[in-house]
Protein 1
Amino acid sequence: MSRNIPQWLAPTSLQEALALRAQLGDEATVVAGGTFIGILMNQKIMQPQALLSLRNVSELAFIEASQDEGSLLRIGAMTTHRAVERSPLIRQEWPVLASTFSLVASPRVRNQATVGGVLADADYASDPPTLLQALNARVVVRSQKSEREIPVEELIIGYYETSLRPDELLVEVRVPRNRERVVYRKFRSRSSEDRPCVAVAAAQVDGKLRVVVGAVAEKPQYFPEICALAEGETGGYTRELVTEIGQRYAESIEPISDSRGSAAYRRRVIAVEVRRALEEMVP
Amino acid sequence: MSNPRVTGAIRYAQDVEFEGMLHASILRSPYPHARILRVDASAVPDSVVVLTPDDIRDFGSYGCQIQDQTVLPRDRVRFVGDPVLAVAAPTKREADEALNLIDVEYERLPGVFDAVEAVAEGAPLVHEHHAISENDAAYFGIRPQEGTNICHRFRIRHGDMEEGFKQADVVVEETYRTPGAQHAAMEPHASVARWQDGRLEVWTGTQTPFNLRMDLAGIFNIPESQIRIISPPMGGAFGAKTFVRTEAIAACLAQKAGRPVKVVLSRYEEWLTLNRHPATLQVKLGARADGTLVAKRVVCWVDTGAYADCGPGVAQKMGYAAVGPYRIPQVWVDSLCVYTNLPPNGAFRGYGAMQAVWASERTMDILAAKLGMDPLELRLKNVLVDGDQFCTGEIMHDVHFIECLHAAAGTIGWADNKQGKGLCVLMKGMQTPSRASIVVEANDDGSYTVHCATAEMGQGAWHSIRLMAAELLGVELEKVHYAEPDTDIVPYDTRTTSSRSTYMMGRALVEAVRDLKRKGELGYGECVNKGGLDPDTGQGIASTHWHQGAAAAEVRVDEETGKFQVLKLYTSIYAGRVVNRPGAELQNEGSMIMGLGTTLFEEIAFEDGQPANANLSDYNLPAAGDLPESFTSDLFEREGAEVHGLGETALPPVPPAIGNALYSLGIHVTDLPLSAEKVLNAIDSRQQAKGGRA
């Protein structure tokens, strides 16, 4: 059952945090808002020896939009869901991002859960990663020695698994400005505060359709070749096209079964919800 | 006045502290059924007190209706979570750490996880013998079937069922299943025990201080007078805080340690302590072509888990509640309370009525469809009115089903359009027989103190009793104090269950105030209700007081995903006279919300006896966002009427009202919860039957 209470490390600067990360690597579990790690520890699925808390690293809590560099939204990893949801800047310029974060769990959770946390825990049943991937967002990953920027789809590689190295921290999310159409649909099979059973994000990015389906497999599912069917369709999609894209997504995904729905059920809902997302995109 | 629940000033059982007090942790079985071969706690440091099966060999067994439990199982564990041993240490952390140092060797045994399978030939036996309890809670004839997993069989034999079906023009038959559910009170189970000069004192959040005292007396083989139970206010109970839960382990550890011991369960342990009975019900109902009901046959399989607890009582109530508030001349019921290797199931708001009403009221709509009759009309034609005989033989009085049904139908515009709409009517019995007694004391300063065992679990019972006392005494509310129930002081009360307290204790209070006015300093009053059912025929008095109500729901279904929205939910409850209107309304709404959770998604999942969703992330409770846009209820009063219990009535009718609303669209689901996936499957198999939209 429970072991010794884990050591609590609470650096106050990113430099300090990176130094601890370099020193301890996987011996210390990184904790941001704690809403994910907390559940795992309560259920005794995870029993870390040490916790590296980023809570006091205030330089990682920010929301900025640079007007230059192609007009990029930069969100610090320690920004809470609630802060994203309520940010006037994000509500104005990236409204679907704000509304998607507002769909996560309850206000109590959103006041704790962070943008960096929800990406780095790579929980398949989350809302934000699906939308961020559709928006072609990238994350900035730092170690003491290096900094790299990778797309969200290369960050999350499996169930609770990321491509982060033991000495790295996810420090920032960068979302390109998107003046084109974006839709996020959260299908809940149970409570309004539940995680998604099927999550669908659809966005036009640089004139190309990106449909990402989340919460149905080990990581968000994106099929560029199916999205390519929509190429050249600028004035809205036909009923036949959106139905076909929905069906092809449903056929291409191997859905999981869990308490929110069986694989067979999810497959049916994927076809419906992808189609509906594309219908909503029609101007 | 600030509410101590809001300010945090309230003192729950888990806030009780004593000098030198130890904190307990419980080592629980990882297997659903296993023999304990060896327990080795030699590595545990001396600062930790360990209670092993050897320590309790001389202690008595307990169980409120069947004596099937010992403080720790002597040689065999029967469910995942069955306590194997317990430790107490100066801190909770040290207690938890000590559990890691204990080695237990098990030999796994085959288990059984479904009540229908558990009664089949050759099923593993969970208990070899069934000793009927001497506790007051064993208030009816309990009929265990030796050599089987059936710990109680309740029967109703009213008229000639075979003959009745011969007269039927239309017969419908269906099987229904309802899953286990967790009470999920905000406050977990907690108790503190200490021994003082050979007397046992226990502070515990309990609805049943006197039943608890009886069982503890049997365990320690001491007179009840040597035990004192104090019941502080609770943060929710819903039936889970009944009978022996954590108290026996706390008391044994305290005795061994010679120091007070506190037990507070974790959220996960709540799922291993008490849940709602999963049930399977088979219903056959026959009517004449004009809708007159002629015969009903019901079989209930009630899964009580590894220990009976009050399962026999639940099975009995489920048995007669499944007949419903109807005039049916020929009734045949077998209700079986069955052991399985799941965590124990016990009282849960509704007490068997939810499962019964789900099966019974869904069947009414199936029958109505087959008769080509309006479901409201079918109910009105057969529903009990004053002077009618119920299947138990008792003559009904003070019944108000028709009024409740009309109100429900009116709320959803039944007369205009029935698509996507559903109705339900229910009756629920109150604990019979039972006894409530109360003392009212006049204080020197002109105020009064009420002493009774009614537990405050958040339902507002203390406030209601104070309001009634103030009115009877003709004083301001502030002049009436309520003392925390303490079995050394308060007179006997059966328990705070079955929505009986305002009614029963209220009647006892009238007597006590009358007595006080006569005597001047101390007044005593009691209320006794007599009755009971013959367990082999179901004849007698099921209840001296009936909880009555109806519900209406309207739904909108996403036919492509099976996800549906409850647009409207309404209950009409007969209240007689309301003592505390805001409290009564909130209690009613609370019942409806719990009913909504049961309808939509609450379900404890097990995989080979292992709980698979025993946490509040995987197990969904209703959230504010799940409430229908239109969510209302009415409490009907009558001039000069007596108070009616309200604590549970609005829960059981919610699932069938919603299930019937789906059925009006041709969507037939028999098993709760009504998940989107089940609804989609039902849409797939929807036939072009009457009422179907397809």
Note: DSSP finds twelve helices and 14 strands in chain A.
Protein 2
Amino acid sequence: MLLLILLLPLLFLPGPLLLRHAPRWAVGLASLPPLIAFILLLQLLPTVMQGQVLLYQFDWIPELGLSVALRLDALSALFALLITGIGVTVMYYAHHYFAGKPEAARFYTLILAFMAAMLGIVLAENLILMLIFWELTSLISFLLIGFYGNKQISRRGARLSLFITGGGGLALLGGIILIGQVVGSYQLTDILAARELIQNDSRFPWILGLILLGAFTKSAQFPFHLWLPHAMSAPTPVSAYLHSATMVKAGIFLLIRLFPVFSGHEAWFYWVAGIGVVTLLVGSFVAIFMHDMKGLLAYSTISHLGLITLLIGFGTHGALTVALFHLVNHALFKAPLFMMAGVVDKAAGTRDLRQVNGMAKHFPLLMILSFIPTAAMAGLPYLNGYFSKKLFIVESLNGPHSGMIATLIPILAILGAAFSVGYALRLFHNTFFNGKPVDLPNWPPKKPSNWTYAPLVFFAAACVILGLWPELMLHGLIAAAANAANVSSDLLIPATSAPHIVSYDLSVIQDHPWLSLISAVTFLGGLAMYSARKTLFAWHAKLPNLNAKDHFEKLMQTLIGWSQNAVHMVENGSLQRYVLYLLVTALVFTGWPLIGLDVWRGNRELMPIDAMTAGGIVLLAAMALAVSFLHHQRITALLFTGATGLFITIGFARFSAPDLALTQFSVEVMAIMIMMLALSFLPQTSPHESSRFRWSRDVIIASIAGIGVALLSFAVMTRPQSSISDYFLANSVSGGGGTNVVNVILVDFRGFDTLGEITVLAIAALAVFALTRNLRLKDRPNHQQNEYWNGFAESHPLFLRVLARPILPMALLVSAYIFLRGHNLPGGGFIAGLITAAALSLQYVACGIRWAHVRMLTQFRPLVGAGLLIAGTTGVGSLVFGKPFLTSWFGHFELPFIGEFELATALLFDLGVYVTVVGATLLILANMGRLMTIHGPGKEIG
Amino acid sequence: MEILVAILLGVLTASGVFLILRARTFSVVLGLTLLSHAVNLFLFSMGRLHTNAPAVIGEAAQHADPLPQALVLTAIVIGFAMTAFVVVLALRSVLELKNDHVDGVDKNEEPI
């Protein structure tokens, strides 16, 4: 049921977009989901009013403590009813506001998504889940404020609000994670019972600060209130819904939800009540001077939010009850006022109070209907605002504080109440009376249909009913909600026991008969202020203009400028520089932990040095250095590179790696061949262009890298080894059926890796094929090398031609031998494939591509595919026998004349490797080779 | 012997790094080749140095660590494929950018 309530708006989400071209009434169906959700909630209401807590849990990522856990108690029910109830009226109102406009569908979709997110906040049992919905409301609010994205004012207002509320969301995330660490759970049930634990933790100041930051930014508390007035560029239904009734209340909700955890702490009182009272005064004071109707209402909202925050800050149960009561009242009188502003704005074309005057003549019904909420806002008798204001003053007198604060807060509260009378008067009198309209864009004002007023009637009636019988709410849902909110560990009621609801005692009002006097004083004060408005405005005009948005924009521009500069500095398009960054980063991150290593020389016994090997190593090092010193002479450097590779081959053979030696040898031949081919199309020398500084810098970086690698490898090589290879060595014969452990690892133990690696090989070969496909290297770059190469291009030395032909069958025989013995002796698919490819490419070199192609099959791409297919099928084959992928099987057979021999499925896998290697290598070589024939590149090969 | 191999590794790495910091594609290709030699040798040396101990059961009393060898074997083959790929990229960029500077813009030279 809870999940359904949450999902209802989401289920209808695509509706408005689908019905975009349907008749108007169809789009109005969008108000169905909040209505259904509202009814469902009402149905659950009796249960939760008894103090029961309905929980719904679905584990989402239990490892992270993240679950879709929902909770419905009286508090969340109160908020959910507000969200859905006001939602219905706003939907209805929007139906008239957007009448016939194409953007209506977008609005409905967004507002439904927002509704779902808002319900998510109040229904969440898991704090992380709540945060997700919290951020969603910020994001959707951004979209709604920037609804008219073609207007700069909308975009900037949206950006400001996202900046502030999004930043607050980050702070909240920090606070929630800290709570989770302290309590060990993100479930509200656990957290609400952990008051002592949290308050006594050393991280408590951080928790409180971060959570308050989140709540205050969302609820537009001073000094984060600045985004709310600028959010008024949103369409009026959005302002009525998000910025008076729901989203700004999310912060309040958070404060109330966590009330049992924080209340009673001194810091809570000072910060929450302090910020609340400042917000109350600033909001109500600034509101008087707003010329924009919606701006005035925005500041009024800020002041009322401050009032509620102040009450929560008192930390007493009574104050909490009054806070909830006023929250409901505020939603009931502020939403219709926004709607009134929207009606006037649409009818008159402006909502500037200096122009909108004397509207009573044109909208008598609207005047009567908006008089009630205005009077409720000002706190006139027999209306709901009257009671909440009275109770507010009572609570400010009964607060837990003493001394100077005890006298100061009631005085400030009365002052704030007087201000609110002042701006209420301004809004009402200025709009409907105060002389004649001035230069209205629409004249005469267009009258909206009377149906538009329906929500206003509803709200006015609610204000009157709650004003006459406040105990309806105070003793009913509000009392239950306050109880649900204030579950302290000692007060926690088991869900099944008899309900124990502490109702608010309204008789306090009788205890303070002078309260009516105070009300009268605030009213007269507000009246006086409004009468003196001309003087006040003149004075206000002289104050320096502090427009938050302008400052914010300036700040944003500066930041954008900085980041642009930073990006240009780092990302200047030079690959050479990116490589430098990468290398330096790698050096820093690998070098940092190495600095702490004290002992470089481990205690493993060193291998004695013999003259031959030492000589080889010195020669090898010298050649590697030669490559870098002679790299300007490219052909020389290339020859030295080739020699380096060959020496490394010898090194592998020397240090007991015959397989590696064979592989390296055959690869080296072909790699050098490819680079030779490429060099014929490139300049033959590299210019000396590096500056002295760059050269020295690179030498230093290279030296650091070299020394680091040398030290690291020395440190490892001199330490004793413990390796997982013992398992491979022990099981190679019994498990893999081969004595060459390297090959058994490749085709059996780690066969999956090998399959991946030959796939990479195949992809690289195909990439080479694709890149050379349309490559038309018409002429060699410049003449000097034409002279250089011309002599060789098409001449195939007789000696080589004659010798290459008999070599081919011999080489193929060798590769077959190497392949077959690979499982037991050095060899295998990789090496055999490379030998075959080398033998075939020798034919190209000796006799030319045309000659070779007449005599051989060149379907290299199908060959690559076939190789992968063989290897993959062998792996899948083991599945048929109910074994895991790539399990190998082997057996020994007896054949006449030949004797016993072994067959293993691993051989089949190795065949796949062999075929892939041959295909890929030849695909690369042939396609690069064809580029340099004298007859031009010709068609692609393979 | 270990100290000599370590120095060799250092020299190979330093040469490779120095070359991939150069401005011309061909130098970078050479640098990558040297650097992949260094990396292969480094991986190989993680199995420690052994003489006359191939990882073939029955051939010798002791066996070198076969796992780094298996890793390096595939690394060599893939390194070859990648070299080929980089070389073709270099050719392609010369053709399309009319110079062989890694940044695609040559400040010092006439276009070739």
Note: The CA atoms of residues 44 and 723 of chain A lie 64 Å apart.
Protein 3
Amino acid sequence: MQILTKEAEHVIDVEKLTKRYGDLLAVNDISFTVRKGEVFAFLGPNGAGKTTTVEIIETIRTPTSGKVSLLGMDVTKKKRKIVRRIGVLPQEFSSFDRITVRETIQYYSRLFNCRNADIDGLIELANLKDKSKEQFKNLSGGLKQRLGIAIALVNNPDVVFLDEPTTGLDPRARREVWDVLLGLKKKGKTVFLTTHYMEEAELLADTVAIISRGSIVAMGSPEELIERNANYLALTLQSVDEKVFEIVQKMGFEPVKANHNNIKVRVQHPDDVQKILNTIKDAGASFLSLDVRKPNLEEVFLKLTGAALREDLAGGVAQ
Amino acid sequence: MSLRIIGANLIVSIKSFYREKTAVFFRLAFPVLLILVFGAIFMNQDNMHFGFYVQDLDGTNSSAELVKTLELNEKFKITRVDPAINATQYAKDNKLNLVVVIPKDYEKSLIQRVKRKDLDASATITYIYDPSSTSVATKMQVLNVVFAEINQRMSGKPPFITPAEESILNRKYRFIDFFVPGIIAMSVMTASLFGAVNVNAELRQKGVIRKLSTTPITHTDWILSNVMYQFLLAVISTISILLVSYAVFDVSLQLNFWLPVFVVLDVFAFVGIGMILTRVAKEAESAAAAANVIMFPMMFLSGTFFPVEMMPGFLQKLSRILPLYYVNEGLRASMIFVDNMVALRCSVIIGVFAAVVFVLGMMTTKWEEG
């Protein structure tokens, strides 16, 4: 009875997990739990240890030390039982080049011995209806990922693992994958997601674990994380006069110079924004436009790790 | 092991196969083309014709009869040269390697010898030849034999020594008959080796294997699927090789239960080697290169294209450690010589080899990563 309730609450239970590759410490003593029915996101840059962790839970890799249980079973001992109850979209998912979408889903449903797998339903869920006769090699990146998600669901799994489902996709294809994932979330599936897109984690996840260099640096709902770690407003003034920087600085804030004569200021309260604008006006200085927004996970990540989530953003954020 | 899973793999493999036209070509048409090309070459060897030119300077009935006698010998194909021209110059100009010249007084000498019993009367037949030609010596030898026979018959005495031919084979076999089993063994080997290497290395590199390792499919299911698929294709290509051999070259081969036995062992042995290579060489390209390194010596040194006996002693010894040699020997023993003992011995050797590499292959195939 004890085990049953535990499984009902904690689908995944990771305790002091460590993984080494020779001298490299890929995962360093991490612990977390995933509750039934939640979307749990591992957010972190490339090389943080996301895929290593997820592949250990999926039984593809073996841990160096620590205990990982999935659906109440030890992942190092019950591989055969576990694989029947999970669905996996591996990183850089690929399949047989000359096999069509429908045939591929059929193939995987046979591997799971699912005689009555709802292949049409899966094709519909992944929004692949007009591509069902297309061979895999002719599919675009987004379509391949959606097929991968459909395949991850053929055995009606208790947990779905999605390892970077939108990496390398253009923004539109990414949105289309998100639509499919939102459909999954609505169905109440337990989903373990890894990503380095904070929008993805913010949009989909109930719980986010921020992972950096093999360690979890923060964990909680996106709102909690922002509240806890980035409780401020980000004010950006665009195309400002020379003297605006000094004016704001004299007021006791810490402005930061950015591109195109922009300055960024963190303020604790909306009233501060009003104060700054009034002071600039009174001093006779000017700016072209302004932008005030609440910080997102990107800023939380930056604050916690001192590094950007993605390399392409590193330059912009550092300024 | 699950038959359902193996069936699902076979369906995917077969669909992938027939949707890839170049694979179909190399798998089926290539061995057939080899048979056609080499068959055509060996056909000529079996029915060799010696072509040469004759210049009849005598122009009499007797000389015409001599040419006719030469022509009646099935081996010769004779072209006449105008008696008025210079035969040596003509041979040079036209790059002929042999012009046989019948002298002017041929009939006169013949009459003197036959009617007047004049033993001094003789005729000299001149060979104008190109010594740089490789076939001319054989032609001249054969002609010498024919002339010696004519001389012998003219002496009016029966020959003392007469040769009699007795083949060690029950029936008359041609080179093409020896060639077909070799091509079957070789095409099954190359396809199994490359099939196993390409499929596994490519799918591993693409990450399909990683996906499969999160499904209920086991290594045994996967490997058995590979073997069954390769066996299926081996059966199809063997049948097409045999059909072409019978239809085009009218080969005479014994088809018995040894043929499928050797095809199965051939498949197991080389799928096993392929699996080991895929594990040792991680990239698809290096695995294919390693497969080539194994395949080429095997192809040329194990008696596929020419008999092992033609090679120098140390290479003959080397060929005896090549697994394909035993497939070749075994298939020839069963399909040509109907020698069950040799076939059995070869099948045991290749069977043990196949079992060892296959088990090694199973043991080295790993899906889980470190």
Note: Chain B is about 65% helix and 5% strand.
Protein 4
Amino acid sequence: MRHSLTLRIGPATFRIGSAWAQPIDQLARLYADYPDVDGAIADFTVRLQPTSAVRRWVRPSIFITGDHGLADAAPMSLAHGLLAAEMGMNLQMALGWRRHLLLHASSVEKDGRVLVMTGESGSGKSTLAAQLGERGWRLMGDEFALLDLDSGAILPFPRLVSLKNKAIDVIAGEVPAARMGPLLGATAKGDIRHMVPRADAVARMGEGGMPALLLFPRFGSGPAERPVGQGEVFMRLTQASTNYVALGEPGFAALTRFVAQVPARAIDFPSGEAAIAMVDRLWSEIA
Amino acid sequence: MSAALLVMALRDPATTAALDATGWNSLIAMARAERLIGTLAFRLEGLGVPDAVRPILADTRDDAAREARQAIWEADRARAALAPIGLPVILLKGTAYAAAGLPAGRGRFIGDLDILVPRDRIDAAADALVAAGWEWVKEDPYDDAYYRQWMHELPPMIHAERDRMIDVHHTVLPLTARPTPDAAAMMADAVLITDGLYMLCAEDRVCHAAAHLLADGDLQGGLRNLWDIHCLCEESSERQDDFYLCLFEKAAHHQLTAAVWRALRLSHHLFDTEVKAYHVPIEVDYKLRWSDRAFISRLLARNGWGQETRKALVFAFFVRSHWLRMPPLMLARHLLTKWRKGHRPQ
């Protein structure tokens, strides 16, 4: 492919090829402080290619694919090329990663112990992780938490944090402009802006920690809190994992151990400040 | 860059020692695109590979083992569903190779469950499968009618709980194809694998694979099918001295001589299959014909990013696949119907 870049995020290496320069240039700027792995052997190949020959030039349209792809993936405009590249990497992880149990969750670490937050898109888990990452916690990832099958540790996958709609202004107010990506308006999920994690999150991206608390955050009401039983936690985490079935027995063993050992709470919160106060309190009480 | 790199690695795994990082990235991307990564992982097992490659291959081998386990379970479920109506399950392709532990099955990608049943029992088989939880998936009435009237298999069914597809065949080529293989003879000659599961005999396995590769589709995934043929031939000719003569005899009976001979020429050329040339009782040699070169170019049409190359040639083989399946008038009607429904060749 005409333009390409190799990136390492946590334990995974991606070779990203693109028919256009723009997405690669944007990635290169935002991932500038990540390890230099130029020319390395990659775990996954991501391709951003035109949906048809004409669409390279005329109203450019990106088909996201790679080693793993979805035949019916929606085409994206070149203006959203950075998002396409991020989605391409997520797609490879979701469909192809086998070395850890993949949880669709954000995670942050303090004193070697990890807070895992899982929930549907829009639950506020990304925003909350990003905020905690600016307030004394180490951000480990906003999209995937990697559960180690042998040790039970959570390993980081600190890609760019993807902020949506109202969360953009909340975070942009706290973070220097150099760590913010371009505003991508009117995507399928509304406005999106990427944020580069703090330097310590990138420098320590090989370093995991034992999970100490699991939260199911939900933005929009409350504040309210309830304990979540192990059966419910187990079911919700199997649904939040893209490779639970593919891992077979080792995945089951790792997940049951996680569920048995990590206390879980569901929290509803009306604002970021309220959520942070709840997290601080729960962390000191039960984690 | 072409899939010659992948062919070389499969044929002679030791040659991968000379690959640099770009070479490995290309090899892995094209092997994944051709769904030969599992096969490659087993071919490279025990060889020294770069540290970054080792976990990729290990993951792939685990995936292949899980897929084989799932496929064999699915075959067993079909066996249980068809036993009450007295139908044995004759497995075709990947599931057969995995269940029988054939070298062709090592690391092989397995998609759907393919089984062969007598044509006059096909409705009974479908009813029994529906009763056991499989459901029809084709929603388009034209597609459904087309399958039932002209194809060698029923429209695909999917199991409601296990989400796995089954293709129920009554022969190995579409009814509209020019050759008419003797499906009844194939079923009569089928061999027991284990526990009520059968597969085609050694010669028929190659006939079917060659028919599938060269007398039917558009050579999508052709390298994988050709690798099957290579493994099937190597294994059977080692066990049976006159394997190739028996194969030619069967191929003639199934009207598949041209397909089988071309498959052997291609396999010999690309994978070094140890074919045996004959002068008596028949004349067979393995020199490439001019037309073989087009097939080889098509089979190798893949670049180091895993993308398909040689668009015009790929399209030509797409056209050929339809030409093989249908007489001109029927083809025209079919293409018009599909076009109206919004289908376009890739």
Note: The CA atoms of residues 114 and 167 of chain B lie 5 Å apart.
